[in-house]
Amino acid sequence: MTTTETGTARPAGRPRSEKAEKAIIEATLELVGEGVSVSELSIEAIAARAGVGKTTIYRRWSNKEDLVAHALAKLKAPLPPLAGVSVREDLITLLDVMRTEAGHVRTRCVMNIALSESDRYPQLFEKFRMLAIEPRRQAMVEVLERGRANGELRPDLDVALAMAILNGTMLWHTKWGGEGLLTADLAERIVDQVLQGLAA
User: Between the CA of residue 128 and those of 35, 66, 84, what are the distances in Å?
Assistant: First the structure.
């Protein structure tokens, strides 16, 4: 324990630990963003860029794949709170996160480079999926199932297919539609168009 100027005790090393972790994450993202593939990326290079020792990294992550997955997940914005008032509003909120993220050039670049080797590093992709994708998938499933249960949506709704239609449409716009199509009302237009075919 150390003591502050006011005499308050605090755990020794915690600020330094948080600072080191942030530096490691940022170094990893910088290197990948500069075009270093996952196979070329090394713990030594990350440690050098972050200004820490390799042991500092290995105390937090067991291998390079875990570190990269964690760093990629940090690029994803936290899930916003859902109002829970209507299926429509909650779906718009969830889809708009995807639209907003697509506007970040660095995020797109890093994701494209890192995930281009997902076949070679399936554990990395699976870790990233669990950290970043699964919570979003589960949130949308819960919204759709709630709508099916309370009568907002058809009782025979195929939740998995509905989710694929919603996410797939936004994904097409973010990947191939061009920035000109990523208008502020895109999520709302997608949801309203899809709900015409899903509503009770």
Answer: 19, 8, 27
Instruction: Indicate the helix (H) or strand (E) that contains 9.
Output: strand 9-10
Look at residues 74, 90, 110 and tell me which one is the last residue of a structural domain.
74
- Quick: pLDDT tens for 137-196: 999 999 999 999 999 999 999 999 999 999 999 999 888 876 677 899 999 999 999 998
| 154 in Cβ contact with 198 (< 8 Å) | yes
If asked whether residues 151 and 137 sit together in one domain, one would say: yes
Q: How many residues does the chain have?
A: 200
Quote the crossing angle between the two packed helices 87-102 and 134-150, to the nearest 10°.
160
Instruction: Give the global pTM.
Output: 0.80
CATH number of the domain that residue 119 is part of: 1.10.357.10
Q: Which pLDDT does position 187 carry in this prediction?
A: 96
- As given in the structure block, the two tokens for residue 146 are 């709630």
| Closest to 56 (Cα-Cα) out of 1, 40, 71, 48 | 48
Q: What is the pairing mode between strands 9-10 and 2-3?
A: antiparallel
Residue 24's domain comprises: 2-74
123 and 158 part of one domain: yes
Q: What digits encode the pLDDT tens for the residues 11-68?
A: 454 555 889 999 999 999 999 999 999 999 999 999 999 999 999 999 999 999 999 9
The SS3 assignment for 3 reads strand
